[in-house]
Design goal:
mainly alpha
C-alpha cells in the first residue's frame, strides 16, 4: 500500500511538473498594444511586416522577446509622432538593415536574396540532369549475346 501511494505521489509530481513546464511555454497573452483601436490596428499591421531581430523567423507582432517588445514600443511612439508606415519601416531599416523587413526592397544589395533561390533551383536541376545523363551512359546493354542466349537455353533444358 505504501509503495502504491509513493508511486501515485511521484506520478502526481511529474504531472504537475509537466503542467508547469507547459504553462511556461504557452504564449503569453499580449497586453493591449494601444488604447486607441485604430492605432493598435496600425501597429499590428506594421509589426506583422517586420522581423523580430532575436527570433528571426517570427514577426515582430508575434514575438515574445524583450527586444521585440521594445521595438513595438518604439513603433508605437513613431505612430504617435504621426509618421507614415513607410517612414517607420525606413527608420527601422536604417537602424537594423534590410533584414528587419520580411519583404525587403528589390535593389542591388538584395538581388541575391531575391534571386538566390531561383539560381540554386536552376543549378540543382542542371546538376541532376548531368548526373542522370552520366548514369545513362553507364547502364550495361540488356541484350544477351548469342553465346549467353545458348547457355541460358541449356540451363532451362537442364532444369526441366
Amino acid at each position: 500500500m505504501r509503495a502504491m501511494l509513493s508511486r501515485w505521489l511521484v506520478c502526481l509530481a511529474a504531472g504537475l511538473a509537466s503542467l508547469s513546464i507547459h504553462a511556461n511555454t504557452e504564449p503569453r497573452l499580449a497586453r493591449p498594444m494601444a488604447e486607441d483601436p485604430v492605432l493598435e490596428a496600425r501597429l499590428v499591421h506594421i509589426s506583422e511586416e517586420l522581423r523580430c531581430m532575436v527570433c528571426q523567423n517570427e514577426s515582430l507582432a508575434s514575438s515574445h522577446a524583450d527586444l521585440a517588445q521594445d521595438l513595438r514600443e518604439e513603433v508605437r511612439g513613431l505612430i504617435r509622432e504621426g509618421r507614415s508606415d513607410a517612414d517607420i519601416k525606413q527608420y527601422l531599416v536604417q537602424r537594423y538593415g534590410d533584414f528587419v523587413l520580411y519583404r525587403p526592397a528589390f535593389k542591388p544589395v538584395t538581388y541575391f536574396l531575391w534571386l538566390g533561390p531561383f539560381v540554386l533551383l536552376v543549378l540543382g536541376l542542371f546538376v541532376l540532369w548531368r548526373v542522370l545523363r552520366a548514369r545513362r551512359s553507364l547502364v550495361l546493354p540488356t541484350g544477351l549475346s548469342e553465346r549467353d542466349h545458348q547457355r541460358a537455353q541449356q540451363w532451362l533444358k537442364d532444369e526441366q
